[in-house]
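Work Package 3 (structural annotation) set out to generate three-dimensional models for the target panel prioritized at the project kickoff. During this period the team completed the workflow that converts sequence records into discrete structure tokens, so that structures can be stored uniformly alongside our sequence database. As a representative example, we reproduce one entry of 460 residues exactly as it appears in the project archive.
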Amino acid sequence: MHLLARLTLLATLASCAHYQGRPLNPLVSASQLETRGLDNGQLQQFIGGANFPKNSPWNLDKLTLAAMFYHPDLALARSQAESAAAATITAAQRPNPSISLTPTWVSNLASASPWLFASLLSIPIETAGKRGYRIDKSQHLADATNLRVADAAWLVRGRLRLAMLDVYAAQETVRLLRQQLQLEQAVDQVLQQQQAAGEISDTDLFAAQLGMQQARLALTAAEKKLADTKTLLAAAIGIPVAALAGIELDFSEFKQAPDVAKFAFSQLQATALRERPDVLASLADYAAAQSALQLEIANQYPNFQANPGYIFNTGEHRWSLGAGAIQLPVFNHNEGPIAEMAAKRQEAAQRFEALQLRIIGEIDRAQAGALAIRPRWDAAEQAVKNRLANVRSARELLQAGEVDAHAVAVAELGQAVAERARLDVLVESQQAQAMLETALRQPITPALAAAMSAPAPRKK
């Protein structure tokens, strides 16, 4: 028995895990965050491996993958999924047996051995399938956290799309305002010549110069906004803004207004109500609540312990079989925990229904907004075409000597204003598409489908 005890102790110590400290150093962490960049080798391996297109600009899909690699929201969601996966190990563990050893020496024993030795082994036995229900509950919760990783990826991508759209809008606004300012200056030069010749009054000149000053102020504000939007874009990716320096961005996806009329909204909505990651996660939460209720119902039935024992008593060997204390369901039958878990299951059902209603509302709003913008886009496109026709007509009249350079400059200024108005409608249209895509949690383009199905990164 002494040998058995020693072997049991050695086996227990050999199988124990050992603690390894991992202290957090704010300075080291901050330094690592500041050195993040799109030229990271692990990032490029994650995106394309040996086929990573190093010389191509960064479009929305590539930046989406970079955000999946870097963004802290996804890192946190993955950590939560790992914690839930570890909890399944805990749920599957069987309770360990215990042993008690009581050696006794009798000092006044006249004969036989003066030693008394007793050992008792306690083996817990769970009944009514409690372990299976516990495993089911933890597995459903692990499934829910894994699905929420995918949902977090969609939310990160939606914010990234809007941030990239803001950069594009600010960049185009700066370009158009610079063009408008040049035209305003050209008009001002012509008007100054006319004012010097006495053809117009000082008031007319000052009014034209006021427009030039307003354009200059608008350009300054637009340049500041462009710098701000780049900061927001970097945050949406999970990198410092300095990492965007020298990076060529591809905005080709934002240059045309999407035609949402071609989408089958009823089919997309039905699919979203069944297959959105947060919908599936909510279903997994409900299944976990079901298993929790089954576990509490099973807890009505007591567990018991098998207690085989051995006694060495003054030279005699005595073996015993017995059962430990069994809890008697006299004062309650676990009604409280059962009622609590039944209420939790009903709460999970209500959460699922509320989620589906919210999804319907999100898709309806996104659809209405996208469809309402389309006529405005058509009108803005027509306005730009009309202004272009005016510019061509003014240039032809200038060549014919019927108008002066001032008329051409005014026509070109009108074209620049129309292009800015079209840009505003284009941005609203792209924002509506981003809202729709986020509400559906479905890829609207094949390229996005490939991006969103990429595996989770493993960083060392």
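The mean pLDDT is 85.
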